[in-house]
Design brief:
- Helix content is 84%, strand content 1%.
- The protein is built from 15 helices and two strands.
- A two-stranded antiparallel sheet has the order 1-2.
- A hairpin with a 4-residue loop joins strand 1 and strand 2.
- Helix 5 runs antiparallel to helix 7.
- The radius of gyration is 54 Å and the shape is elongated.
- InterPro entries: PPP1R21, PPP1R21_C, PPP1R21_N, PPP1R21_six_helix.
- This is Protein phosphatase 1 regulatory subunit 21.
Length: 773
């Protein structure tokens, strides 16, 4: 069993890790997709930049060519200038008019040269700036591209690691599943062995019972023949006596149970509010869960507090069932209160819940004391609250023990005498008063702590309202504890009093009490049936006539029922045929509409296509198209088709259209088959996953059922062994008692025979003496 629990815990841990890794894998997949999209966008941007760079390079080439032309132009101008200067030197003596003309032309050339030089300088500057900007952008984009490639490689490595980890986890889970199946099979075999052993034990038990019953019959026959019966000697016979019934005690018990139910309902509601508001406070202070994550201790504490209703609601429900079981005609003592055992189990579960949450509550208070804003006064109040919670939990543990002791007589009628029950009731009353004192101290310390927390600078309105609700729930809890303690102390005499239900010379068994009440109900029902007035009888002839009428009416009724069934079947068949023909009519209408549309389209095509064909025939072929055919490529999602436009005949056009249609239809059919294959594969994988999940769930269910059956089988074996040992012991005791009694009776009989023989001898001797005289 320990191995099973370990495997279950390991399996749950693996499942949790698998779910976490699956969530992380989805996140990483999304991140990888995002990075891929960003890398694609960056690649597109890089392509655009490269295109712009090519444009700039082309412009640079054109500018360099223009610059070369300008430099050649400048050189030519300079040569012309030199020639003009030399001519001017030669013609200095010829007058002033040609020198003026040369000066004017030279000034014009100088201005033109200056403008070209400035334009060249400006173009050089622009070209240099454009080159620098391009180099910077290219360096930035390359750095970003390298960074994105590194990130994509890292993400790909993480994805590969996670896939490897997932595969390892899946293999481990499959191995665990196989191990669990093997263990389930072994458990099935063990369960079969246990069933075989139980059957053997039952057979042995029947054998022993038959032997002991035969010995008992023999002994009882011997006792009946030779020993007079005494009904007050054996306690087993005394327990069969009918107990007395105290009606006033029953009414008082029902009233007391109703009062206790009301007080416990108030206590349960107060505890529910206290645990709920404590959970709300844990999420607010010292850390607000809406802003930042709370500590793991507080998370676990909040998780446990969230389960308080599953432990408190059964208390109220079980006490309500106990109150309903106390009726006016029942026999209410500790031995007959079978529902008190359920209440004891529920109370024990709640006390265990308090014991479970106690360390987390103490640790939470310690965390509140470790906050930087916590003062010394608040820390002292937290320590007082820790002591109060410990005290409250210990009191609930004591109450659990007392309630369990009070529930024991309902299982074993001879387990507790009246004096011990009175002592338990007295101790329970004192414990309830201690619970009231502990609740009062807890409420006082919490109110003082809340007043100190009002002065903190980080206190919010939500925190104040939570503290107020906590204080109100503690006040209700204190009030409920006070009422319960007062109620128990006032009714302590009633609890300790003996109702006088025990039969003469023995204890009361719950089964005997149920038998007494069942016999009482049967007797009342028997008396009521006796007192009923009998109805008048019908004469025999009239009864025969009525019988013939009834048989004929039943036969006619059966025939009518058969006709009704046949007519209903016929109606249903006709309805089906009607629906079928309605569907056929609808399909015929749809087909008729399609045919009408097709005929209209054909007529329109005939009317539109006649003159067009005549016009194309009269025009003849186009020599430009025949001389220079140009190929046009039509690309789409389905594929690419190369079209050669040319004037052709109608047959060629139809064949071309047929080829285009056939190409597209074949492409569509291929895509549909691929899509169907993908859908079928997806459906197959989905079905396999569902089947595996169902098999896993079935294996878990079978494992749980087998473990439960094994537990039940072990419990039955132990119970049967205990019953066998007790029956053996009781029968051996009875046989020993009977044998001792038989020995004593044989001794008495032998003594009586000896006395009779001595008396006979004495009487004979006296008779002889008298005769001799």
């Amino acid at each position: 069993m320990a191995n099973l629990t370990d495997l279950q815990s390991k399996y749950s841990k693996l499942a949790q890790e698998y779910s976490k890794l699956r969530a992380q894998n989805q996140v990483l997949k999304k991140a990888v997709v995002d990075e891929q999209t960003t890398s694609n966008s960056l690649k597109d941007e890089l392509k655009q930049k490269e295109q712009s760079l090519r444009k700039v390079e082309q412009e640079m080439d054109s500018l360099s060519f223009r610059n070369q032309q300008l430099t050649k132009r400048v050189e030519l101008l300079q040569e012309e200038l030199l020639l003009s200067e030399s001519k001017n030197k030669k013609s200095k003596n010829k007058g002033d008019s040609p020198s003026q003309v040369s000066l004017q032309t030279q000034s014009v050339f100088d201005e033109d040269l200056q403008k070209k030089i400035q334009e060249n300088e400006r173009l050089h500057i622009q070209f240099y700036e454009a080159g620098e900007q391009y180099r910077r952008q290219e360096a930035q984009l390359r750095e970003r591209l390298d960074q994105l490639e590194k990130e994509s490689e890292q993400h790909q490595a993480v994805v590969d690691a996670l896939n490897h980890k997932y595969t390892d986890a899946i293999e481990k889970l499959q191995n665990d599943k196989a191990n669990l199946e093997v263990k389930a099979q072994t458990l099935e075999r063990e369960a079969k062995d246990c069933r075989i052993r139980t059957e053997e034990c039952q057979q042995q038990l029947r054998k022993y019972q038959s032997e002991v019953s035969s010995q008992l019959k023999h002994s009882s026959s011997v006792i009946q023949e030779k020993v007079p019966f005494n009904d007050t000697q054996l306690s087993d016979y005394n327990s069969l006596n009918v107990p007395l019934h105290n009606r006033r005690h029953q009414l008082k018990a029902r009233d007391v149970a109703a009062q206790a139910l009301g007080f416990v309902q108030n206590l349960v509601s107060a505890l529910l509010n206290f645990h709920s508001y404590t959970e709300q406070r844990v999420h607010i202070y010292p850390l607000d869960s809406s802003i930042e994550a709370i500590s793991p201790v507080n998370q676990k504490f909040s998780q446990y507090l969230h389960e308080n209703a599953s432990y408190l609601r059964p208390l109220e429900e079980d006490l309500l069932q106990l109150h309903h079981s106390i009726s006016e005609d029942a026999i209410t003592v500790l031995e007959t209160l079978a529902k008190l055992q359920d209440f004891s189990r529920s109370f024990s579960a709640y006390s265990s819940f308090l014991q479970k949450i106690l360390p987390y509550q103490l640790k939470s208070l310690e965390e509140e004391s470790e906050v930087s804003l916590c003062t010394s006064a608040l820390a002292s109040k937290n320590r007082q609250l820790q002591n109060d919670m410990k005290k409250l939990t210990s009191i609930f543990q004591k109450l659990k023990s007392y309630v369990a002791l009070l529930a024991v007589p309902s299982v074993r009628s001879d387990a507790m005498c009246q004096s011990s029950a009175n002592a338990v009731f007295t101790q329970m009353s004192a414990c309830l008063h201690g619970l009231h004192d502990a609740a009062t101290e807890l409420s006082q310390h919490y109110s003082q702590k809340a007043s100190l927390e009002q002065d903190l600078p980080t206190v919010t309105q939500k925190f104040r309202t939570t503290n107020e609700c906590l204080l109100s729930s503690l006040a209700s809890f204190t009030n409920s504890c006070s009422k319960i303690a007062t109620f128990f102390s006032n009714n302590l005499d009633f609890f300790a009093s003996c109702p006088g239900y025990s039969p003469r010379g023995g204890f009361l068994n719950p089964l005997q009490a149920d038998g007494v009440m069942e016999n009482k109900r049967r007797a009342a029902a028997y008396m009521s049936t006796i007192r009923k007035v009998r109805s008048e009888s019908v004469p025999y002839r009239e009864a025969l006539a009525n019988r013939h009428i009834l048989t004929s009416s039943t036969e006619s009724r059966e025939g009518l029922m058969q006709q009704v069934v046949q007519s209903q079947e016929k109606i249903s068949r006709l309805e089906q045929e009607k629906e079928h023909w309605l569907l056929e009519a609808q399909l015929g209408q749809v087909r008729l509409q399609k045919e009408i549309q097709r005929i209209a389209q054909l007529e329109a095509q005939i009317t539109d296509g006649g003159p067009a064909e005549t016009q194309s025939a009269t025009d003849g072929p186009d020599p430009t198209c025949a001389d220079a055919p140009e190929t046009v490529q039509d690309s789409s999602v389905i594929g690419m088709l190369t079209i050669t436009p040319c004037s052709e005949s109608a047959a060629d056009q139809e064949s071309r259209e047929h080829l285009i249609k056939h190409h597209y239809m074949s492409r569509v059919s291929e895509l549909t088959t691929q899509l169907q294959m993908c859908d079928s594969k997806a459906v197959h994988f989905h079905a396999e996953c569902r089947a595996v999940a169902k098999r896993l769930a079935m294996a878990e269910k079978t494992r749980e059922t087998l473990t439960e059956e094994l537990k039940l089988a072990n419990q039955n074996i132990t119970r049967l062994q205990d019953e066998l040992s007790t029956t053996k012991r009781s029968y051996e005791d009875q046989l020993s008692m009977m044998s001792d009694h038989l020995c004593s009776m044989n001794d008495t009989l032998s003594k009586q025979r000896d006395e009779i023989d001595t008396l006979k001898l004495a009487s004979k001797g006296n008779s002889k003496k008298n005769k001799s005289r």
